[in-house]
Amino acid sequence: GQSLEQPSEVTAVEGAIVQINCTYQTSGFYGLSWYQQHDGGAPTFLSYNALDGLEETGRFSSFLSRSDSYGYLLLQELQMKDSASYFCAVRDPGGTALIFGKGTTLSVSS
Amino acid sequence: DAGVIQSPRHEVTEMGQEVTLRCKPISGHDYLFWYRQTMMRGLELLIYFNNNVPIDDSGMPEDRFSAKMPNASFSTLKIQPSEPRDSAVYFCASSSETGLSEKLFFGSGTQLSVL
């Protein structure tokens, strides 16, 4: 089956850089996705890595190492609005649905 | 585009009652997913459809849960009878064939409370 591990909580201050790690075990790998969810809101897509390396989108970057079954989400120049839960996800064995990690709650303080 | 639309936004019911959650996916999307979110178990996949056909319902917790997709623009998740442990936020999500599983679009969710 699919399993993902990520820290439950991370705290940081405005302007800082934070890295949220994710390790996974899968039967069949199609890529690693990241989603953001604000309190009371719906998960929204942030990034997707199918190949090894770093993908950058503005202040957010995502990294993947398939040989290590590991990835991370890097958030730079943190803002208060970045306080949210962040989920990594992989496809199910059928290669279709997404299976999510338990999520990392990021708290940004001033 | 209006996005994925779910109703109701909140549902409070008593144990033993039937609950029906509704979802309208984004027009043109071929896949529809139902997820349940709780603090203890996180985001769990319940069932998903491709072109209105249920593909994998292995995540449906019990026979009390059923889901249908009678057409491309509508799906329901029914719980009968409901129990307090069913209390959770239920999300519907859709995606296109092209962006398969790389990008899901989630609805706002239904907060279900079973008393």
Write the layout of secondary structure elements.
The complex is a heterodimer of chains A (110) and B (115).
Chain A: E1 3-5, E2 9-13, E3 18-25, E4 32-37, E5 44-49, E6 53-57, E7 60-65, E8 70-75, E9 84-91, E10 98-100, E11 104-109
Parallel strand pairs in A: 2-11
Antiparallel strand pairs in A: 1-3, 3-8, 4-5, 4-9, 6-7, 7-8, 9-10, 9-11
Chain B: E1 5-7, E2 10-13, E3 19-24, E4 31-38, E5 42-50, E6 53-56, E7 65-71, E8 74-79, E9 88-95, E10 105-106, E11 110-114
Describe this structure in words.
The complex is a heterodimer of chains A (110) and B (115). Chain A is an all-beta fold. Helix content of chain A is 0%, strand content 56%. Chain A is built from no helices and eleven strands. Chain A has strands at residues 3-5, 9-13, 18-25, 32-37, 44-49, 53-57, 60-65, 70-75, 84-91, 98-100, 104-109. In chain A, the strands form two sheets. In chain A, strands 2, 4, 5, 9, 10 and 11 form a six-stranded mixed β-sheet that branches. Chain A has a five-stranded antiparallel β-sheet with strand order 1-3-8-7-6, with no helix packed on it. Chain A is globular. With 115 residues, chain B is mainly beta. Chain B is globular, with a radius of gyration of 13 Å. In chain B, the strands form two sheets. In chain B, strands 2, 4, 5, 6, 9, 10 and 11 form a seven-stranded mixed β-sheet that branches. Chain A binds chain B through residues 30-31, 33, 35, 41-45, 48, 50, 87, 91-92, 94-103, and chain B through 31, 33, 35, 42-43, 45, 48, 50, 55-56, 91, 100-109.
